[in-house]
Amino acid sequence: MRSFLKLERTEARLMAEAALRKAADIKVLETVCITDDGGFPLLLERMDGARVTGPQIAWNKAFTAAGHKRSTHLFNQAPNGPALPGNEAFGIQWSFEGKFAVFVGGFPIVVDGEVIGGVGLSGGNGEQDTACGLAALAALQEHLGTSHKVLVQADLKL
Question: Please, which of 3, 42, 58, 157 could form a disulfide with 33 given CB 3.0 to 4.6 Å?
Answer without folding.
Answer: 58
